[in-house]
Amino acid sequence: MHINSLRLKELRVARQWSQEQLANLSGLNLRTIQRLESGAKISTESLRALAAVFEVPADSLLVGDSTPSQPALEAMREGVLRGLDFTGVTPRADFWWFALAVVMVLAFAQLFADAVGPLPLQIVSLVVLLPWIAACTRRLRDAGLNPWWQAISLAPVGGILVLLYLLTYPTKAKEPVDAASV
Hints:
mainly alpha; elongated
C-alpha cells in the first residue's frame, strides 16, 4: 500500500505539528514518518495509527481512486460505445469488463425469456453478437494476434476454449522504432 504523502503532510501541517510530534502522537518512529512523507510504502499498523491520530478514514490516506468500481463501469461503457468499431485495440482488463457486461445482459435476457418465451433472448443475442466480435477483434490485435483467430470458435467444443485462452494473452509490447530505418 502506498500512502498519499502530500495528504499526510497537509494534515500534519494543518495541525501545526512537526514530524517529531506526529511520531510521538502516533507511536511511530520519526524515521518512519520521514519515509512516509517521501512516498514510501506503509504497513497496515502504521496506516491505522496515522488514521487514528488524524481522525480520518484509513482509505483517505492511501494513493488511488476511492471508487474502485469506476474503471469497471467506464470499461463497460467504452465497450458499448465502440460496439461496431473493429479498428484499434482494447486492453485486456477493459475487454473482460465488457465481457462481464455481455454475460450479465444475456443472463437477464434468459430470465426474461423464461417468463415470456424465447424471443427476447434471441433478439438480445443478435444485438450483442457484433459488439462481441468487434471487442474480440480489438483484444486479439492488442495481444499481437491476428483477429482471424476468432474463426477457431467455430470448431466444436474446443474452439471456444482456445479463443478464450487467446483472449487472455497480455498486451504485446510495441517494438521500438529505429531512427535509422525511418
